[in-house]
Amino acid sequence: MKSAFIIHGSNGSKDAHWYPWLKKELEKKKLQVFLPQFPIQKDQNLQNWINTLKPFEKEWDGSIVVGHSLGVPFILNVLDQWDLKIQAAFLVSGFTGHLEVDEPNIGDFSEREFDWKKIKERCKKFYVIHSDNDPYVPIEKAHELAENLGAELILVKEGEHFQDKSGFGTFELLLKKIEEQL
Description:
Order of helices and strands: EHEHHEHEHHEHEH
Number of strands: 6
Radius of gyration: 15 Å
Helix content: 25-40%
Structural class: alpha/beta
């Protein structure tokens, strides 16, 4: 059975936004879907998140991976560190480098040198999805991410940060793009 992972954002919950909806939709397509809850607040750091994902390392190989916000640099770190290949990565509201937000330990995930060559070798296809009015992650970060990954930038009009409060309890565009990889 093919696996999929959904990685939430900073100080996030696996039960928020479009994550539970996407999990159900992918399970209907006979995927084994992992939606782990990662440590938040003061415990939100790269090593704690890696430790949380480690029990699922075998399932990561060959999987489809979706990351939102801080989940994006986390996915890039995993691809940089683990010698496993995934089928596709869907990077929503993602970034690398410094980000001007008041969230715990963001720089631990994103303010580092990534081995882009290695990361690209470990994933067959990248999708970078971003909004033209994201209040937290500037659009320049999306352009930079897409360029570093050799991926097309899929720009959504007025999607903000793709959260419940912006009307994203579901995310049909994302589901459609994932279905193209199945």
